[in-house]
C-alpha cells in the first residue's frame, strides 16, 4: 500500500503545480474599488449683454476607496468652451479659502454619443474631468471648473416685450443632494430680475404639475444684479431646470445717442464694459508691452556685455550667434507667444518650450579671449608697493545694470522678481496651475542677469586677486600672531609641571621665545611691463623680520585657468632661497612637498607650493608655515630641558605643520 501511494503522489503533485502556474499566468491585476457620491453642486451663471454666459461649478465629491482617476459629468451645455484654471481641492482647504493643496484638473468634452436612450431621446453631452497623477484618494473634495456657453444663440433667452425669459438646465447627477444652489449674475437694468416658478414646473419638482419650492435672494449692485436661487433638494438622475424673468434692457447694447441729462461717466463705463473688444485690446496692449520690454532688455544686455568684453580683450559669445536686432526681436516674440500659449492651452508644454527659446536667445556664453592663450609676455620689472596701496579695493565698473554681481543689478533683478511675484499671486487666486507656469517663466529674467557676468570676463591679474590676497594676508598675520602668543603659555605650563627647581630655566626659555617670535612684513609686489605704465600682475610678499641666511622672499600669487563659468583662480606660494645657504638646508625637508625650479636671477632657487584646494585658508596655512620655517631661531639662549627619565620632551610641531599645510 505505501509503495502504491508513493507512485501516485508524483502525478498529483505535478498536476497541482501546473494548475497553480496556469492560475498565476492568467491572473489579471486587481482593480481598485472606488465609489463616488455627489454631495452638492453650487453653480454660478454670469451673463453679459450679448447673452453669452460663464458657467462655474463647485461640485462636492465624497470618495470611498480609490483612487479616482476620472469623473464623467453628464448634461453640460453642448456648446461648452472649457476655460483654463480647473482644479480640485480638499473640502477643508476649500472652506478655509486655501489653494495650497489644489491639484489641476484636465477637462475635455467627449464626442457626442449618437445612440438613443430607452425613451428615444438623445444622450446628453458629457464632460470628462481627469485627475492626473495619483488621482483622488478617499475623502471629501471640491471640484471647480468653468466653461463658456452662448444662451442667446441657443435660443434660451426669449424676449417678450419689456421682459426676457432666461432658461438654463443643469447637469444630471446619479445622486440626489440637498440645497441645490444657482447664482445668476445679470447686467444692471431698471427692473429687477426674479425667479419664474411657472417656468421650472416641469423638472425637478415634487408631484406632477406641482412647481418646486425655490427660495430667491436678490442683491442689486451698481453694474450688475445678482439673483441667488435655492432649492431644498435636487432629485436623483434628473436635471434641474431654472427659469428667470429679467428686464429685456439688460441684454441691449448702449444706444449711440443718449438723452441730454444722462450721466456721461456712467455711459462711458457701460460702453467700455459692454463687449469683449475691451478685454482683447487690453491683452494685445499687455503683449506688446511685454514684447517691447523684454526685447529692450535683451538688446541692452548684449550691448553692455559687448562693451565690457571688448574692454577686457575678449569677444562676446551669445548662446545663439545671430545678429542682435533679430535676436532681441525673436526673444521678445518667443516670450510673449509662450506666455500666451501657457494661459490659453490646457497643456503648458508648447508655451514652456517657447519661453525656453526666449531664454536661450537672451543667454551668453563665457567670452573667449581675442588673443590666443599661451603667448609669452614681454620683460618687465617687479616693484614693491605698500600693503595698503597694493591691496586696495579696485574701482567698481560703472554702467553695469544687468549683472547680478553688481549692486544695481541685484536691485533691478529683485524689483523685477517682485513684480513677477505680484502677478503670480494675482493669477494664483484664479488658477494655481497657471500661477506655477508663470513663476517658472522667471528663467527668462535669470538668463539676462545671471549670464554674461563680470566674473566670466578674462581676469586682470593686477586687480582680480586683490580680495583673495587680502584674505590670505589677514589669515597669515593671525596665524603668526597666534603662534607667538602660544609659545610663552606652553613654556609656562611646562615649567609648572617640572617643579620649582626646573621652573627658572623654562621661564627663561619662554621669555626668549616671546622676544624672538618672528615679526611679519607684508608688502605688495607688482610687475610693470617695459614700455607700459600699468601693472599686469599682483603678488603678495611675505618676509619675517629675522630670517635665515640665504632667504630671498616668500610670494603668494594667483594663476588663472579658463573654466566653463569664467576663469578659475589657482593660488601658489613661492619660496625663493639661495642654493647652499642655511635657509635652503632648513627647508630641505619641505622641498619634497613642492616643485623646485630656477629663479629669475642667477643663483636663486624657487620652491613652489600649491594648496590642495584653491582656498584662502589653505593658502594662508602654507604661507604661515613657511614663514615660521625660515625664521631665525633664538641663538643667545639655549633651551633647557629637565633631566631624568620622566622629563617631558619639547614638542617640535614645525615640520609637521608645514608638511600638512603644503
From TrEMBL:
The lineage of its organism: Bacteria, Pseudomonadati, Myxococcota, Polyangia, Polyangiales. The chain crosses the membrane at residues 282-300, 411-431. It comes from Sorangium cellulosum (Polyangium cellulosum). The keyword Membrane applies. The keyword Transmembrane helix applies. Keywords: Membrane, Transmembrane, Transmembrane helix. Residues 190-210, 632-662 are annotated as: Disordered. This is Uncharacterized protein.
